What does this fold into?
Amino acid sequence: MPLLVFATSNAHKTEEVAAILGEEWQVEDLRAHPGVTLDEETGDTFEANAIIKAVSGSRGAPGMLVLADDSGLEVDALGGAPGVRSARYAGETANATDNRAKLKTELAKLPQDIRFTGRFQCCMVLAKDGEVLHVTSGSVEGRLLTEEVGAGGFGYDALFIPDGFAETFGVLPADTKNQLSHRARALAAMKEQLDSLT
Ligand code: IMP
It folds into this structure.
């Protein structure tokens, strides 16, 4: 089974990627490669930050295929925020609970008679030995709630209802999320490239 190093320490993301790739790939993240360090995410697009993570991660894991993703939530009524700052929306040391609280506060300041449309975005980059091999992206449109519903998933999942569904990603089964999420879509496109390398 070929090995793919996923340049993240976010166990939730790794679980999703491993579930989507299935038995054909062995996915290990930075918890299994503690010596690999990633450069700071200084880009102002998902793609720029995913490239920073993939390239720096692959320099620390010579000869290995390294996948990185950068993802986040865009809310139209907030001008696209939190966007690339999704992980740090409530501050540099913020956790997911802080970030959801900040989002609820920002949404509460707006007129409540509009539908808060938005999307999750994901850019995935595959690199080896410091070189970018492939870039793919995916998104999922939906709407934001002003109160959390559901305890599944991670990040902003409990506040996001994907189009075509009545429940948040915090309620929908992981299998459902993994068929339609921004990460699933970016990874489906990347899987074609990965399969062509083996
Ligand atoms: P990254 O690690 O820089 O890509 O940060 C992405 C951030 O966006 C996460 O910390 C979450 O806050 C949010 N995010 C990305 N993907 C998801 C998702 O699938 N569900 C919920 N939140 C997500």
